[in-house]
Amino acid sequence: MKTIYQRVTNYTCGFATIAFCMSIWLLASFGLATPLLAIDPGDGIVASSTFDSGVDGWRIIDMPDNGPYDHPYGLYDATYNSSSGNPGGCISGTDPSSNTFFFKAPDSFLGDKSDAYGGELIYDMISIGGDYFDTADVVLIGAGRVISYNVVGNPGTTWKAMIAPLSETGWKLGNLSGAAVTEQQFREVLAQLTGFYIRGEYRWGAETGYLDNVYLSKFASTDSINLTVDPGSHYIGALSGISLNYMLSGPMNYSGTVTLSSSGTAVIPSIQPGTYN
Question: Can you give 134-174 as a three-state secondary structure string?
Fold first, then answer.
């Protein structure tokens, strides 16, 4: 299981050892005791599937290329892969026809999901095949409506986190050519979900799509880390202008340098949501 959501953006850290010698700073170490960007999966997660032990009720559904998404062509079993997920298990589907296949969510993702409004759908995906084509990536059905969303970017041959807001921004009625969804319409769909689909087919011709770590979260992720350094009561110098080197390892690797403000704060920008060491 991988936690891929950020709820709290402030993270307080401390200098493990700071020594002074003839006004020369000697930074012995600067460490984080726990991973960044992690929350308790039970806090804020409305529904989830991590495929640690099976397909968790997910199936493959074949759809018209650009809808209508409430008239599927066929329903198939998803394939369970016990060791090729991100990490652990995952599910996959192989192109069953010349149409577009989606992963169909189980009942645990349906019904009244009003609590998720304002949060996010986040999932991991791999797509292996030919050239890309564009169509809806996520489809929700409820309250007599079909709404769809186009996630920024396409999955590739390594795991990629895909994110869709659980609010009306960017969602369309019907397919991607439809009218913009209003707040009231989106809330009504969430409150009466009868269908929830994640696109598995992104490429022309035969392909295989892999899905892992699907979460409906009440909270929206952010794309930066607000860092606060607390050197402790024994420190008597100024924090302003101190440079800190950082390295983050997780869904992606980041490194760089930030400069502290007078209050000991700095921002590490443009971080893909995830759990980082």
Answer: CCCCEEEEECCEEEEECCCCCCCCCCEEEEEECCCCCCEEC
